User: Fold this.
Amino acid sequence: MSLMTKAIGCAKKLKHRFSDRINQNRPVYLSPVRRIERVALKERVVAMTFDDGPCALPANPSESKDALTAQLIRTLEKYGAKGTFDVVGDTSDNYPDKPGKEGSVFWGGIKFDHYPDFEKDSFGGVKNCPELVKMILDGGHEITSHTWSHVLFGPKPLVYGRRDPLNTIHDVTADLQKMHDFMKDNYGYEIKLSRPPHYVDNTKDGFSAYDAYAVMGYQYLAASFDGAGWLPLPSYQAEVEATWKPIEQKLGENPDYFCGQIIFQKDGYNMSRRSPVADGLEKQLELLTEHGYRVVTVSELLEMCPFSDLCPSDETFAHAKKLLDMGVCVCYRDNTVRPQNLLTRGELAMMLNGVSAASRRIELVKSKKNPASDVMFGHPYAAAVAEAVESGQMTLTMGRFNPQVPVTPAEFTSACKKRLGCDIKAPQAPVSRSAAIAALAQAL
Assistant:
């Protein structure tokens, strides 16, 4: 294993270890796009995602000539499990390029990724593997977008400094649209979730994957548990054990550990051009089945519980889910609802206009026009504030919007009536998010 590979592995572990502490100090905003890592489900239900496929090449090592994706599907079906296949479109246009060093992050290419391998692009992606796409869909599994070309959404100098990224939000949405149209036109399939290549989020022109997904109407597909297999280890056997031993350990410590979690896997080769998932998946499923888990698609998991902080038994759950299903922006970007929080003016503007204003945010940033003296054009609520003010839902005070000021009951009912055209029962002051969500859900 190279020093770079070890560094990446250590960095990911540190990131997960300190992510909660980091998030505590990071401001959160309501968002039409939620980062889906896990949900607050108390039942033993879990989802598995498989990146970078479909892969028509056989597993390595393997005596079988069957496609790796087909092998994974058969293993899932053996256990009555449903998978979420986070597929690419076709990487054959990612040339000219040169192959990188095996065992490094550039194993598949210096400037671009190539799946399933360098100069073997014709064996991967939905464009080149129609029989595997059909096998996925016919089996009741889910397809999500890992983008058409698997090119980074902007630069990441520390790890992928030699890569050629997509530079603008337009480039990103065009790539996503290509995948979306291909699946809809050829299979009548509507994509709802997407994961950025290597989780690189920010383009050079100041936008992010969240902006792109808002335009596309997608949710951000992340994961809460790394199924391993993508990092090279000294032996294939060690790589296989790395896919299931951590699961065995966690289940031994707490049988409910994986409730509502999303497990990351790889439908392809790792940096050493091996595919430990081919042998590790069965052991993973065996362990989960022994502990009474059902493995479902991510969309099925989200239908059971879409939130990371509200379980179905919580008082606010039914109202929040109703609004979410109707396209109302009730969640923060981290997929929490936080019903105990007071509702602020900025959040009310976002609740009422966040989804419809998604495309306008791009125009606002490009024009650098501030909707209020205290809400700059780049603020996450800027487009929603602009729509709330221009439509007369909410007002400015001496040019200021005061997005952090709590909403009054009168202001809440007035804004809702002007936006939705229906009477809303005024919640008591101060207006909590739970009260606002309940009042809105009961009126709609």
User: Anything to note?
Assistant: The first strand starts at residue 35 and ends at 36. The chain has 15 helices and nine strands. Residues 251 and 257 are 6 Å apart (CA to CA).
